[in-house]
Amino acid sequence: MTTFPAFPDTTCLFGSYLCDTMLRLAETGIYRPLWSAGVLEELERNLLKRELTGPTVNYRIGQMQLWFPDAEVRDYESLIDAMTCDEKDRHVLAAAVRGNAQVLVTFNDADFPAKSLAQYDIVVSSPDDFLLDQLDLYPGAQADAYTAPAMPVEDLLGRLAAAGVPRFSSEAARHLQGPPDY
Q1: Environment class of residue 7 by beta-carbon count within 10 Å: exposed (0-12), middle (13-18) or buried (19+)?
Q2: Residue 31: in which H helix or E strand, if any?
Q3: 5 by DSSP, 3-state: which?
Q4: Does an H or E element contain 124, and which?
Q5: What span, in angstroms and rounded, lies between the C-alpha atoms of 42 and 9?
Q6: Can you name the residues that pair with 35 across neighbouring β-strands?
Q7: Is 160 exposed, middle or buried (0-12, 13-18, 19+ CB in 10 A)?
Q8: Cβ atoms 27, 64 nearer than 8 A
């Protein structure tokens, strides 16, 4: 299995079930996650606005850094001004470029027009499309049932559908059912 670098932005890391699913896939070696200090700061701000406590937010981000110590892209700041995507997301594209990401995963694909990506050979993908691609390539790396808190895989897939990846959830459910009996 060839591991390729993918850069999930804050929109993919914000929701706990989607973030956990994406990072569980990365843990299997399907892809290598990348992020930046700017993305983690944005994640922290948004999680605190969600009224999570500081220790909860720090624990979550700390666990991400612990499990993926090589994910943080550094020294990207000098590239920010050269980026031509949406101004508020230039730090994201700059870090993805510095990290040699092949895919930038975001719900905000309109913020990254094709002309702003062309010279960097980076593809923008929605989380739904990204997860569907991984499911097609590695059907055995499916979502497992949660153990803490206990949650059957069907419930997890329902939560993922609600989190913005309905096609992945539907396809993963179909894979879990197995081939039809003829």
Answers
A1: buried
A2: strand 31-33
A3: strand
A4: strand 123-125
A5: 9
A6: 72
A7: buried
A8: no
Any domain includes 182: no
β-partners of residue 5 are: 32
Number of folded domains in the chain?
Answer: 1
Task: Tell me whether residue 137 is in a domain.
Answer: yes
Between 32-36, 45-49, 52-56, 126-130, the lowest mean confidence (pLDDT) is in 52-56
**What's the token pair of residue 46?**
């948004």
What CATH number does the domain containing 10 carry? Answer: 3.40.50.1010
Q: Which residues pair with 7 in a beta bridge?
A: 104
pLDDT by residue (tens digit) across 5-37? Answer: 999 999 999 998 899 999 988 998 889 999 999
pLDDT > 50? residue 77: yes
Task: Name the residue among 88, 84, 87, 160 with its Cα closest to residue 122.
Answer: 84
- Model pLDDT for residues 135-168, shown as the tens digit of each residue: 877 766 555 544 556 667 788 888 888 889 989 8
